[in-house]
Amino acid sequence: MLILSRRMALAGLGALVACGPAAAADWPQKPVTVIVPQAAGNSPDVLCRIITDKLSRALGQQFVVDNRPGAANVVGMQSAARAANDGYTFVFATSAALVTNPYTIKNLSYDPLKDFVPVAMVAKSHHLLLVNPNVKANSLAELIALEKEKPGSLSVAVDGPRNISGLIAQAINKQAGTKMVLVPYNTISNAVQDSISGRTPVTIQSASVVEPFIKDGSLRAIAVAGNERISTHPDVPAIAEMLKSVELQGWFMVMAPVGTPADILDRMSKAIAAAIAEPDVKERAPGLGFELAKGEPISPSGAKAFLDAQYAYTGTVIKSLGIEPN
Amino acid sequence: MREHDTQPGGAAPDSPVRVSQNLAGGLILVALAAIALWLLSDLNAGTLGAMGSALMPRVLAVGLGLLGALVAASSFFHQGPVLEHLPLRGPSLVILAIVIFAATIRPLSLGSVSLPGFGLIVAAPLSIIICGFATREARLRELVVLALALTPTCMVLFGDLLNLTIPMLPDALMDLFPEGWSQKAMLRVSAATMLAVAALLFFSGARSATDDAKAKD
Amino acid sequence: MDTLISNLSLGFSVALGLQNLGLAFVGCMVGTLIGVLPGVGPVATIAMLLPVTFSLDPVGALIMLAGIYYGAQYGGSTTAILVNIPGEATSVVTALDGHAMARRGRAGAALGIAAIGSFFAGTVATMLIAALGAPLTKAALLFGPTEYFSLMVMGLIFAVVLAGGSILKALAMIMLGLLLSTVGTDLETGDQRMTFGQPFLWDGIDFAVLAMGVFGIAEILRNLGQPEDRDLVRGTIGRLLPSQAEMRQSLAPILRGTLLGSAFGILPGNGAVLAPFASYAVEKKLAADPSRFGKGAIEAVAGPESANNAGAQTSFIPLLTLGIPANAVMALMVGAMTIQGIIPGPQVMTGNPSLFWGMIASMWIGNLMLLVINLPLVGVWVKLLQVPYRLLFPVILLFCCIGIYSINGQVTDVLFIGLFGLAGFILIRCGFEPAPMLLGFVLGKLMEENLRRALILSRGSLTTFVTEPISAGLLAVSSILLVAAIVPNIRRGREEAFAE
After folding, report:
1. Which residues in C lie closer than 8 A to residue A284 (C-beta atoms)?
2. What is the interface pTM, i.e. ipTM, of the complex?
3. CATH class of the region A30-125+250-320
4. Mean pLDDT lowest among A92-106, A165-179, C133-147, C451-465
5. How do beta strands A155-158 and A202-206 pair?
6. Is C51 on the interface with A (CB under 8 A)?
């Protein structure tokens, strides 16, 4: 706390020195708010705080994290959509808020493509398909074969049928013709516990959460959700190697209210690129389960291209699963 | 909390209608259950293997309704404590203070009405003074001093020390400060000013009170 | 035994370092402060402080965060006793008799016994973690959805016992609490239930909002209507700390509470919530004169407070040994650990012993510090009660508004404490008690989730609750408890009828 207030005093001092007329070149002139549509302490929040900490130092103004959790990101996204587009409000948006909600929530109160402009892609998070070690399957193919012997016998622990790991499970069921039963958990720890004890022999979890359980052998990773293998588990094949187009992923993108001056977006995206290139951020991200963005997607135009592609792709997957917005 | 313990059978002699607590309470619960059932009417209960969203709440609402009916019915078998008439002044001013706090702390737009956010520096004194009048013993001067002393304390405690993101100052006030001041500095200066005014009021008040006392002697 | 001693001495050598002692102290102070402020909770504060911990070494960071956690537990009891506002589910029970004691002028004794009981429980729980942490972990894995559902059923029975007045009314309040817990988006279907289409209700009602309304605000409204009652507090203060007789009375409840709390705390599914309720129910059953409960019985503060703190402590066991966080604060600790490059789980104990044992030793040091911080504060808090009520209640109200706003930054939360306050006031006027409703509310969410999962896993068969041995055992105990709770009540009712 002492450290915190000292830093603030320094930031204040810096601001006193740097006065001048308000123009995009002088941005930021006052503290910048970054809305996180998730509760304080969730993994997107932690990542956001690591990055805003760097931004505060680099740009000489306090970047304040404003947690607006609730209603599957809707509360935070809605308040960000209504915020002034003067370059002093940004939102740390999740893939759920940007590309899943439009297809699962009726009368969504914000439009991800029209109310916001992308600033920078920040990170992806990876999901793994894991089994309890007693399950006699060492690969996705063997798991599917096992399930087909007795359809409906395997239970899979997920975060809910309309959330990312639930969607992945349903996509596998649909493409492989299996009938795994989805068991919804809203706390990750309970899901992991039930998979370790074998009640739900299969689970789909964010890679960071299950890392220790893979290490001590209480869970076995058999596939990576997405179309490519990941650096931390190079020998675990991607689902897409067997089932085409199960490429659902979680990711995070900084967005601004539409109409925010382009040069501010540019400066912000460059600052974010610099922040995520710092060695201690790079070092911490894998532990939190994030793969930091590289290259083109960190720019506003690259982020836009990525968002548009994901928006369309997720839509086709969700519609093909027969999920209706409600 | 336990009305019937502190006031055994405490019938208010001046209340026009004598309704027992159980009858009123039971009927309230039945009404709540009915509202819940109505709100749940278009949801699906599903099956045991795949519980629908309405299964659990519907069972609970029916249970609540039955229990409420039993409580209400019990009032016919033995006359329990009688419901006293509700005081109006206290509850209405306390609720008003809460509403005022909610309406002024941050920008508000309700249909055609929209208010700028005033921040804690306005919301806190308003709600202290309004809510203070919920009791008949309220004294305006005392409440003003309390408001002027407590508000800056809260501003520093929550905004500066705990670093919580609560709006503190209205934009209009922040514009009065010279260019380039940090928010924390503005907060501290405003807080110090308020405290000074509070101290001034308090001591002048104390002196005038002693003056009054002397005058009486 | 030898290894235990050498491990503990390693731990103390780490925890007694100057920097770590300082961090533990800062953590305990900040924790006490946020615990005392209604609404502001440890989850939000720890999240805010996470970036600060980047610059610390891992042991120091965790020691400070843990200090905040149990500091907040201590502080929360203070608010529950003084102004009847339970900040968390676990201090609801403390509010019952603790605040009743305060109204009788025994606030000092209530605060004192809470601090002493918590310290004792903390000491025992720390030793338990050190000695039995690893083997106890296996027990946690025995609990799945079926077992948790039955455990929650048992919790509901505690709620019946909790009630001071009519059992029928208590049942009605539990039902209302359960019903309120189902408000919000359904996890499985995505349907919005009883939300009136309002996004702020999609996630359901927040516990802090409900508790602050039906306890804190309703208490203010009640006091405003009864001037004679609240002046009682100012009339007699009595001695500050518990008397010898009171200490003797509290001894057995503290022991039993510690035991119950330690057992419930080990369960990773937030089982610690039940510990204070269980302790209250046990003490009331064992008491020579159960009618004192609810009117300021010191056992009803000593037992549940010890249970609460023991549970808070042992809930570190699943985190440290399995890597499974038991509640939201523990989940944040996982975040803090991973940021520091430590992956929580069984390997921490072997791979990083100075961290593991340093943390355990600091738990005990933290508890000692809290006792040292809190006992002198008792005098200050009691003095606070002497402030005229006409000045005190606007302060309480303001802190409630700011505290609740600070959690989610939602204006609707502020409005809802008013709404629930009014509703609670009316229910109290009709002779209902809010405590069983709050317990029903807390258990409701866990109950529905686990019922649904248990039924999916059993593919729709209800018999799973009696064929699984642990679940069957829990249900059997519940039915015995229920009979034990209802029979005397019926008998009493009959006697009253005869007397008339």
Report:
1. 338-339, 341
2. 0.84
3. alpha beta
4. C133-147
5. parallel
6. yes
